[in-house]
Specification:
The complex is a heterodimer of chains A (254) and B (160). Chain A has nine helices and no strands. Helix content of chain A is 63%, strand content 0%. Chain A has one domain: Ferritin, core subunit, four-helix bundle (Ferritin), CATH 1.20.1260. The mean pLDDT of chain A is 96. The radius of gyration of chain A is 18 Å and the shape is globular. Chain B folds into two domains: 81 residues, 2-Layer Sandwich (GMP Synthetase, Chain A, domain 3), CATH 3.30.300; 71 residues, no CATH class. Chain B has a four-stranded mixed beta sheet. Chain B has a three-stranded mixed beta sheet with strand order 1-2-3. Chain B is elongated and about 55 Å long. The chains are: A mainly alpha (254), B alpha/beta (160).
Chain lengths: 254, 160
């Protein structure tokens, strides 16, 4: 049964962790957004991602059994146990970098979830089906901001170019399946992102070109390790904030 | 008896938009009578992170306790995914009266920067409306502004 496989559990955790850490980063904007409507937009996107993470964590907890709960998985693991992409742990930077990160992530998610909806695993399909509807709004929001800011003033354009240059080395990991993903791809349970890499690059190039931002694909640098639990220096600080309350007051509930 | 339970659930309001019920919202997917006073209600979340689901669950529980049931099970089901197609027509009318533009199922996608086209302003009825942000006061709503009367309003987003 595929659900017994440790590879499958690792993959669910990778999805859960990626959404959780990105939601956590987006929440840092709450109360600090450039204008009220965009502050709200960032929080709403974070909430959607947190909901998706919650669905994945719930599944992982059911698979792991024992003491595991969605909360314990989200809040109490050590750094090396988290399997999120490096991309999502990077600092928010300015609004331009936040928007660019979201755009790259959501453009990938759209294509990935479309395929994940056809997985043999019914529960994953259900989570993906819901997540895809939300992703479409995240994608149009972030695409619009890429274009507004990229094709904006000289300052907004320069900041966007810098943001994209900063993020490019971290995009390769999206298309570098980890060992556990390889096994699941072979078993036909999850999509191989390289099957839609060309389409992703095309869609991304369209938006970047309208935004008058230059970027080279594939980028020569590929930073990786997140999927294996080897994180950037930023991860420790994120977890310290995320886990502080649960570790200080174990079992704390609203 | 099951029919009666569905009727009782019409008295459970949506926590965010109290003029509509959880039945209008289309989040109640099944009602099963397990024993004379034991019932299982299956609900589905609107959005993955919808924070109102706990309150909805509690609202259902309290309402059915009020009606004399003592074994109430509320379970969540993710699939099939909730869609705005499941909103009742009555619910949409109530939303509009409340000041929220209901989803327009036949709206045209305007593409980037335009959002959905032809959304009518709930205050003045004009369709000269503009998308301000895909994200409004809650996960399910977008923010629009009417170019005729200049009032901003929430639009309940189409979710297919």
């Amino acid at each position: 049964m595929h659900t017994d496989s440790p590879h499958f559990k690792d993959f669910i955790l990778h999805l859960a962790d990626t959404n959780l850490i990105l939601a956590q980063r987006l929440c840092e904007w709450c109360g600090h957004g450039p204008i009220l409507e965009q502050d709200i937009a960032l929080s709403n996107i974070a909430l959607d991602l947190l909901g998706q993470a919650s669905n994945y964590y719930g599944y992982a907890a059911d698979l792991l059994g024992g003491d595991a709960t969605a909360d314990s998985l989200a809040m109490l693991r050590g750094e090396r146990a988290y399997k999120n992409l490096l991309l999502v742990e990077l600092p928010n930077g300015d609004f331009g970098r936040t928007v660019s990160k979201q755009f790259f992530f959501e453009s990938f998610q759209e294509l990935f979830l479309e395929k994940l909806m056809r997985s043999k695993d019914l529960r994953l399909r259900g989570i993906a089906e819901k997540a895809l509807k939300e992703t479409k709004y995240h994608l149009s929001w972030s695409s619009e901001w890429m274009i507004r800011l990229g094709d904006g003033t000289q300052e907004s354009h320069d900041r966007m170019q810098q943001a994209v240059d900063y993020l490019l080395p971290f995009l390769g990991e999206l298309f570098l399946p980890s060992e556990y993903e390889h096994e699941l791809i072979k078993a036909g349970l999850i999509p191989n992102p390289n099957d839609f890499k060309a389409r992703w690059e095309e869609k991304v190039r369209d938006v970047l070109s309208e935004a008058t931002i230059e970027a080279e694909f594939p980028h020569k640098q590929v930073q990786k390790g997140g999927k294996q639990g080897v994180h950037t220096e930023y991860m420790g600080y994120i977890l310290a904030e995320l886990q502080f309350m649960q570790r200080s007051y174990p079992g704390l509930e609203w | 008896m099951v029919d009666a339970i569905w009727k009782y659930l019409e008295e459970v309001p949506d926590p965010e938009i109290p003029v509509i019920s959880v039945i209008d919202l289309g989040v109640v997917r099944a009602v099963e009578l397990l024993e004379p006073t034991r019932v299982r209600v299956t609900i589905t979340p609107t959005y993955s992170g919808c924070p109102a689901m706990n309150e909805i669950s509690m609202g259902i529980r309290l309402k059915l306790m009020e009606k004399g049931f003592d074994g109430i099970e509320v379970v969540e089901q993710l699939s099939p995914a909730w869609t705005t197609d499941w909103l009742s027509e009555a619910g949409k009318e109530k939303m509009k009266a409340y000041g929220i533009a209901p989803p327009v199922e036949t709206s045209q996608e305007g593409g980037l920067f335009a959002g959905e086209l032809g959304i009518a302003c709930p205050q003045c009825g004009s369709t000269q409306t503009e998308l301000v942000s895909q994200f409004g006061s809650t996960a399910c709503k977008a923010l629009y502004q009417c170019q005729a009367c200049r009032e901003p309003f929430d639009y309940f987003k189409c979710h297919h």
